[in-house]
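Running this now, will post back.
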Amino acid sequence: MPSSFPGMNPYLEQPSCWSMLHHQLCGLVVEVLVPQLRPRYLVKLHHRLYIHEKSAEERRFFGSSDTGVAQPSSGQSAATATATHIAAPAYGQIPPAVEIERQAFLEIEDRERDTVVTAIEILSPANKYAGPDREQYLAKRKTVLHSLVHLVEIDLLRGGPRMPVEELPGCDYCVIVSRSYELPKVGIWPWRLRDPIPVLPVPVNEGDDDARLDLKPLIERVYDAFGFADYIYRTGPEPRLSPEDADWASECQKALRV
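Update: finished.
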């Protein structure tokens, strides 16, 4: 159903749905760019891995949720306390538990030259918050910005510090479009919570027309397909909104659920 949010739905930023939105949105971007760019260009979906090792206090089973996993009881029965365990003939150690995050990104290739011409990144919290994942992303970003590859960097997250860009206007969301032949100048598409998401250019080789990327209908397709309305409104948006924006968002989400 059409969204009553004119732009980005702030409830989609919560961890319970963001990873699904991110992955599916990348796939839909491929779907809309391919007809515009073929046959000269190829649009490819790739993944990078972020491996997070947990401390002993944080280790748990793999998965997005621990719902349904039995926890030890504090009141063990006498029979349990005195149970006999059969000793193993040998013992080893399992490496510390880790979480593996697969993050999708896109590249556009010139089919004849077999070279990457454009990288498209949809930022995730791992990219934005301080830590090794942000540093890894910034290193890749720096490499792209020092090459002949264009960069389209899409930030649909209010949370976390923005990527380094001089003279960035105040905004809740933004997209940076770096054309390699215009550097150090980059295009900026900033918008606020209540603004519509702008239609974005996706540059390719100089002299060829940009592709056009309208994210709003793609986000709505993921929202409907995964039934986000069934659970994302149990809590308020993350990060928290100002009182005025919170009231506005609440009215929007009520209209969505009618």
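The longest helix spans residues 15-37. More later if anyone needs it.
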